[in-house]
Design a protein that fits this description.
Layout (H helix, E strand, L loop, with lengths): L4 H17 L1 H4 L4 H16 L3 H17 L3 H14 L4 H10 L4 H14 L7 H16 L5 H13 L13 H7 L7
Helix pairs in contact: 3-4, 4-5, 4-6, 5-7, 6-8, 7-8, 8-9
């Protein structure tokens, strides 16, 4: 009996872990998401215009993001952005759908920025990706240095920053007002 106890304990821990990992999928009805995905795939195959194909790819990405297929969703959004590199609406749509998965969104946005130039017709989409990355680093990913670096990149490209920076501490307020620490 005593030699079986560790085995039973490990099996129970593993079962608990699997239930915890699958918890978001347990409470959902995936039938509607699968139907949306099938419809989007049919639209992808039948699309003749690149912008129409990009929207269908985004629909497929939305369906994948809703049904916990994060890697598939990123792939569909990336294909959509490659199909229509000038559309900033596609970047915003991907950011909205993947807002609960910040690391996947970060990867997607960096891949978008690396795929196309930041000038010309694709400048709007690149600026939107930079702003979304800055919001990610200011918010869920908590990397203020990267957020400020992206703000500086936007300023260097003569684009408005995502927001005006407030002083970070009381000593910054004093130095900004012309004062400082007394000697």
């Amino acid at each position: 009996m005593s030699s079986e106890l560790p085995l039973v304990l490990v099996a129970a821990l593993f079962a608990g872990f699997m239930v915890w990992r699958m918890r978001p999928a347990l409470g959902r009805s995936r039938g509607t998401e699968r139907a949306l995905f099938r419809t989007a795939k049919k639209r992808i195959e039948s699309a003749t215009v690149p912008s129409e194909r990009a929207l269908a790819l985004c629909d497929a990405g939305d369906a994948c993001a809703a049904s916990l297929g994060t890697a598939s969703a990123v792939g569909y959004y990336l294909r959509a952005m490659r199909t229509d590199p000038t559309s900033s609406a596609l970047v915003e749509r991907a950011a909205t759908a993947l807002e609960r998965r910040p690391h996947a969104l970060e990867s997607l946005l960096w891949r978008r920025l690396g795929a196309e130039p930041w000038s010309g017709a694709s400048k709007g989409a690149a600026m939107t990706a930079l702003r979304e990355l800055a919001f990610l680093y200011e918010g869920p990913l908590r990397n203020r240095a990267r957020a400020r670096a992206l703000d500086f990149a936007l300023a260097a490209l003569h684009e408005p920053p995502r927001r005006i920076h407030a002083p970070e501490s009381s000593t910054d307020v004093a130095s900004a007002a012309g004062g400082g620490e007394e000697d």
